[in-house]
Amino acid sequence: MSECAYCKQRKGKRPCPALGVICSVCCGEHRIVRVACPPDCTYLGTGSEYQQKRLSEQFMPLRREFYREIGEAGGEKAVALYNLIEVVTFSYFHGRRDGQDAEVVTAIQALRRTLSPLHVPSAPMPVFAEQLKKEYDAFKKQNPQQIADASTAPEVLDRALKFVSDFSGQDFQSQRYLSGLIGYVKAYHPDIAAHLTKQQQAGHIVLPGQSFMPPSAPKPHTHGPGCEHHHH
C-alpha cells in the first residue's frame, strides 16, 4: 500500500483527488486548509460537519468571554456591531466550503477604514467586505441609536479583528474561525441558522432582528426606595 502523499509517514488509505492517496489523519487535519480539495470530494461533507462541531465547542467559551469584554468596554452598541458581523458572516459563508478567515479579517479592516474620518476610497472592496459594509449601513440607517458609529466603532472593530485572528491561528488559508462560528450557530441556535439560511435564499438583506448573543448575567439587585419589590 502506498504511503500518504502528505506526511510521507503513514499508509495512504484514502483516494485523494488532489494528491493521489492520503492517510485519514492528514485528510482530517489538512483538507481545504492545506490541500486543494475539489468541491465534489466525498470526504468533504462529513469532515466539515465534524470540524464545525469540534471547533464550535472550543469557540463557545471564548466567544462568550469576548462578548463580555466588548459589552464592558463599549456597551450595547458595541455588542450590536459585533453581532451584526457574526450574522452577516454566517449568512454569507454557511453554504460555502471555500470561505477563508482572511476574507472576514479583510472585511472588518475595510469597514474600519470606511468609518475613519481620513478614509479615501481606493480599489474596489472584495465581495464579502462590500456585503458587510452594505449591511452595516442599512442597519445604521434603520436603527441609528442601536449600533456603534464612527466615533466608537473603530475600537470595537480592532477588538473583533484580534478575536477573529487569534481564533483563526497562523495558517494562511485557515477556516477555523468560520468553522467555529458556523458550527456554533448550527449547534446552539438551529432556529436562527434556519431563519438566516432561508432569508439568504430569498435574497433578502440580512439584518439581525434575531440575535444569538450569549445571555447576559442578571444585574445584582439592591432593595431600596423606588424598588418594585413588596417588603413583607
Describe the structure.
This protein has 232 residues and is mostly helical. Helices cover 56% and strands 3% of the residues. A two-stranded antiparallel ribbon has the order 1-2. It has helices spanning 24-30, 42-93, 101-114, 127-142, 153-168, 176-188, 190-201, and strands spanning 14-16, 20-22. The model is unreliable at 206-210 and 215-220 (pLDDT under 50). The chain is elongated, with a radius of gyration of 21 Å. It has a domain at 51-201.
Number of E-state strands: 2
Stretches where pLDDT falls below 50 for ≥5 residues? 206-210, 215-220
What is the end-to-end distance?
81 Å
Major sheet, described briefly? 2 strands, antiparallel
Structural class: mainly alpha
User: What is the global morphology?
Assistant: elongated
The portion of residues forming beta strands comes to: under 5%
In short:
This protein is mostly helical and 232 residues long. The protein has helices spanning 24-30, 42-93, 101-114, 127-142, 153-168, 176-188, 190-201, and strands at 14-16, 20-22.
List the SSEs and their pairings.
Elements: E1 14-16, E2 20-22, H1 24-30, H2 42-93, H3 101-114, H4 127-142, H5 153-168, H6 176-188, H7 190-201
Antiparallel strand pairs: 1-2
Helix pairs in contact: 2-4, 2-5, 2-6, 2-7, 3-4, 3-5, 6-7
